[in-house]
Design a protein that fits this description.
About 40% of the residues lie in helices and about 15% in strands. It is α/β, with parallel strands linked by helices. The chain has 2 domains: about 100 residues, no CATH class; about 180 residues, 3-Layer(aba) Sandwich (Rossmann fold), CATH 3.40.50.150. Strands 3-2-1-4-5-7-6 form a 7-stranded mixed beta sheet, sandwiched between helices. Strand 2, helix 7 and strand 3 form a beta-alpha-beta unit. Helix 1 packs parallel to helix 11 and helix 1 packs antiparallel against helix 12. The longest helix has 23 residues. It is globular and about 65 Å long. The N and C termini lie far apart (about 50 Å).
């Protein structure tokens, strides 16, 4: 049984899979005529006739597509209800400072500032996202409370015992030096500080090679851990793991609904050729991720951990 609605889910306006509807829209053909051709239907996996997409990932058109699909300031699933569920264990209040690793367009940061009055520093590895996120924060009057800074996750160093909460949502899977970064997270947290992590995990007995179809189109090269790897690392760092939740079903449902909602809108209009090409490319990326999650080989978990007082590591001596 599927764990949630896939991107091939049916919409309320049509019974045709979203992928095929978007391809028919690109070719300017009625959906029925396009789908009647089996070769065209098969070609929906690899769109043809589209302009070459820039190697630079976060060009203006991709930023526009992301926000059309996921909402203002978002690069992926994260509506208010979902964000509230993810961060609810933190008990945020205005006295807290928060660091968000992989802040993207800063939508989650601004949500926390608006709802809880906290001060959030976003750290982001992509220069285009840093620029756009700071523009969005400035327009929202949050340039001081929700700034985003450029960082390298493989080299970043935190000031010891300086942070109340550190978040990382759906981006640690692309960090090669995961152990080093998690050690820095532990070092940067105050005693009693909190770490909230959502990330993609290999299911038990699965290897990254088993997910090659998704990995080839993933935005970054995956460096995946299994659940036991995270559990062991939290224990090694004396991070008390309070929440360990498989959120795959909810995540898949949000992906399916978001794309089902946006396709009827784009079918009525045609942007630039590059915008259209990136729209199709993003759908392909999220389709393959959804399929990997639906297969059970890839999972997404939420972790919430609290740093204890006896937190010294060998490197601190």
């Amino acid at each position: 049984m599927p764990v949630g609605g896939t991107i091939e889910s049916k919409t309320s306006e049509a019974t045709t899979p979203i992928r095929l509807r978007l391809k028919a829209w690109w070719h300017g053909m009625p959906v029925e005529a396009f789908c009647a051709n089996e070769a065209s239907a098969a070609a929906a996996r690899e769109p043809e006739g589209l302009p070459e997409i820039p190697k630079q990932r976060w060009v203006r058109e991709r930023i526009e597509v992301a926000q059309q699909v996921w909402g203002e300031g978002m690069c992926g699933p994260g509506d208010e209800d979902f964000l509230h569920h993810l961060i609810s264990p933190l008990g945020l209040d205005p006295a807290m400072n928060v660091v968000n690793l992989g802040a993207g367009l800063g939508g989650a940061d601004r949500y926390m500032v608006e709802k809880f009055g906290v001060w959030v520093t976003g750290l982001e590895a992509d220069t285009d996202l840093v620029t756009e996120s700071n523009d969005l924060s400035s327009r929202a009057g949050m340039n001081k409370k929700a700034p985003v800074e450029l960082y390298n996750p493989d080299e970043h160093i935190f000031k010891p015992k300086s942070i109340d909460c550190i978040l990382s949502m759906n981006n640690l899977y692309g960090v090669k030096e995961k152990t080093r970064l998690l050690e820095e997270v532990s070092r940067g947290l105050k005693a009693g500080g909190q770490f909230l992590l959502t990330d993609f995990l290999l299911a038990d007995g699965v290897k990254t090679d088993d997910l090659s179809d998704w990995a080839r189109r993933a935005p970054v090269k995956p460096h995946l851990w299994q659940l036991a790897d995270f559990e062991q690392k939290f224990a090694d760092l004396r991070l008390d793991l309070r929440v360990k939740e498989d959120i795959t079903s909810t995540f898949c449902s949000i992906i399916a609904k978001s794309w089902a909602d946006v396709v009827p809108t784009v079918e009525k209009e045609r942007g630039s050729r590059l915008y259209s090409a990136i729209l199709v490319d993003e759908l392909e990326i999220w389709s393959r991720l959804s399929e990997a999650l639906e297969s059970g080989k890839l999972r997404i978990y939420r972790f919430h951990a609290i740093k204890g007082k006896a937190d010294k590591m060998l490197s601190d001596w």
